[in-house]
Amino acid sequence: MKNVFLLASLVCIFCFGCRQPAPQAVSSQDSTTFPNRITVHITGDISLPDSTNVFINTDENTTQPVLAAQIVDGRFELQGELAEPNFYNLVIQKQKFNVFLENGKTYHFKGQATAGSLPTGRFETTSPATNDYQQMQQEVKQNLAALQAQRAALRSAFDNPKTYQDAVLRAEKIEQQRQEYPEKLKQRYLQDDKIADAFKLYLIKEDKVNKNNYKTYQTMLTSVSDSVKALSLYKQVAAKVDQVREFYDHMPNFPDMHPRNIQGDSLHLSAFKKEGTLLFVFWGSWNKEAKSDIRMIKDAAPALKKLHITPIFLIWEKDFEAWEKASNALSLGQHNYRLNATDQDFVVTNYAVRTLPHYMLVDAADLSIKNYNFTYPLDGRLESKLKKELGL
User: Considering the domain 23-126 in this protein, what is its CATH number?
Assistant: First the structure.
């Protein structure tokens, strides 16, 4: 769902990765400044025109190559010193190929060029982290292709009225497998003792660290070797996990705030103590995505009631008439309240509610936070998503 930014100047507390200064090429005089410096030598075979640029950069600084060369007679060679072992990008014709560069390893890139362009490429290397990365990418590609083939094989079943319903169910199962597979594969790699520490750190860095996984990642960080702990990759990941830990360790229970509904009645959360779970829906009358979600939430009301989930709508709105008009159009009823400025500031500061729509799951009994940022399912299957989220 597209979001409307409330506070564009603020950065989400869970940014995709904590950014550090990019590793730079170094000279032999920099041993004190760069104690982890590495010497790299990369060769490659690729049928591309002479003088095609080949260079190494980082995700943190894509505009500044740290090593560069050109293709001559279908080959290239990159060599020099870098600040430290880390994941870098080999860039050819704007295509990036991830590689973990470290001392004492061999690297040879073999690319597949077609009609002057580079569609695929792979490293032949003795770097365990790079091989783990390439193996995982290959597994993802093969599995998703297999699922796509299974989905395509259902075409004739969809065309037959007798088998149509069964085809729908099988297609739904395939789609669920497609969505769940990358996460399951990632967890398998993270739990495998044979996988290189550096690649595990890369997976955590690229992941969304949240309430469900930060403790697991914290434990994993303690088992990393001391040599890896000296690298900026480890420091990035440790800072990211620690930021989430600090957020949850200091997250207060949802306050017993008392915003008013259109009729002028105040919200009293103590009246919902026996309701199981509260689904707080933060929305705005101007927000089409929020209003679309609310319609689906209302349609799911009977199912939510069976799950002991009560939606409470909290609007971010200054214009009373706009709120009243939107509420009447959506038939929101009495559990529809307008937040004042103080309440807005509290949820922004403590729960990072900075975009609309935003959803929170709160324990009705003690107002503890079950999920400060519940993601509305793109497929609209709210009931199944909530069951999974709440372990029902």
Answer: 2.60.40.10
**Length in residues, the chain:** 392
> Given 3-state DSSP classes, what are the helix, strand and coil percentages for the chain, each rounded to the nearest 5?
40, 25, 35
Q: What is the DSSP letter of 255?
A: P
> In whole angstroms, what is the distance from residue 266 CA to residue 316 CA?
16
Residue 259: CA atoms inside 13 Å, Cβ hemisphere, count? 22
23-126 shares its CATH topology with 260-390: no
Q: What is the pLDDT of residues 168-197, one digit of tens each?
A: 999 999 999 998 999 999 999 999 999 999
**How many Cα atoms occupy the beta-carbon half-sphere of 388 within 13 Å?**
12
Q: How confident is the model at residue 212 (pLDDT cuts 50, 70, 90)?
A: confident
The β-bridge partners of 86 are 101
Quote the CATH superfamily of domain 260-390.
Glutaredoxin (3.40.30.10)
Query: Domain residues of the chain, as ranges?
Result: 23-126, 134-249, 260-390
Residue 335's alpha-carbon distances to 142, 167, 288, 313, 347, in angstroms, are 48, 40, 20, 6, 18
Nearest by Cα to 333 from 376, 362, 298:
298
